[in-house]
Amino acid sequence: DAAAWVENGARAFRILTRTGVSAGMVGGVPEGTDLREVSGALLISGTVRHAGPVAVPLASGEIARIIPAPAEWELLAGRNCLLGMRLEESAGVVADWLRYHARHHGATGAVIVNRAPPDSPAGSAEDFAETLEEALNDCPGLVVVVVESAVPLGKPGLGPESHAYLAPDAPGKDRMTVPAADPWRAPLGEPLIYEAAKWRFLARARAVLCLDVTDILAPDGASNAFDLCVAARHGVVLLAGHRIYPWRIRKGRAASFGDHICRPFDHRRGIARWGVAPEVAGLDLSWRAVRVAFAKPDQGQVVEFWRAMAIRVPGYRAGELAPKTSLIEDPQLVALAALFDHQPVHPPT
User: Fold this and answer.
1) Ramachandran region of residue 268, left (φ > 0), alpha (ψ -120 to 50) or beta?
2) pLDDT computed for residue 300 by the predictor
3) Strands, E assignment, 220-349
4) In terms of pTM, does the model score above 0.85?
5) What is the CA radius of gyration of the chain?
6) Each residue of 298-323: pLDDT tens digit?
7) What is the spatial distance between Cα 235 and Cα 295, in angstroms, rounded to a whole number?
8) Are 165 and 129 within 8 A, CB to CB?
9) Which of 66, 86, 67 lies closest to 145, judged by CA?
10) What is the mean pLDDT of residues 158-186?
């Protein structure tokens, strides 16, 4: 991907590659052009005085001519934004996720990277975007950008995240058949997708929270997560997540956030994500999946979120995603279900 904008009378650009591209594959570059390797991918930044393609000389002697897309920072300028991945979750689930964070946490914008394959049984990308827009007609102030990728973004050789084999708490993995490689649905393997979202859409956002569409903030307490990002010394806060589960999904119904009223009693290993205020932190720090590079979150300012596993790994019973002997009902999650006006199935007493 590539983005460009006008800066100090010149045309600034960022070119972001897939993994497997190193600085050694690029030939001599003009003075002022910077090459930065990030987790096996390459970020190229610089300025040019002309319009049209940016010429990048390659070590092979060829010239790559790349046409950056105009940065669209005004779409989300000054907004509290969510940044997350959608695998194949329904438009209804994504609408619930957006509506909840808008009403209870002050979200006013979002960038959703749609990772569903072109032949997704959940419908085409256009159908998803149209259905999502219709479902959000009661949130007129919310601006949502849905980003498509023409190529798969998963790690090579791994099966889909939506298979129980890749669910961290699932029992009996030694008896499961290892799922076939699925580059569209595999765990994310392209680290610069977050940088692409930043330079294309989010550089002027007030604050950004990195949460997938299965991740939901705990009900707002004394401090708002977006406000904490702006107030943080370095503009970055830690988001600490834990996996949650339903006790049982009612027959014939798809899992919803309101079904997830149980958690493992030992909470197990958490999930690291982040929030950032771009203007405070600066734009040159790379956004990655689990952290903002070289930025130290404020001590003691940790924001809790929950990952709804029956939505992330659909079609399985709760006991196939986590041992039921480890699950306990959590009063906070029961209160969350009430915010969704949902009547979950409770564990037996």
Assistant:
1) left
2) 79
3) 236-244, 262-264, 271-276, 302-308, 327-329
4) yes
5) 21
6) 887 899 999 999 999 999 999 999 99
7) 8
8) no
9) 86
10) 95
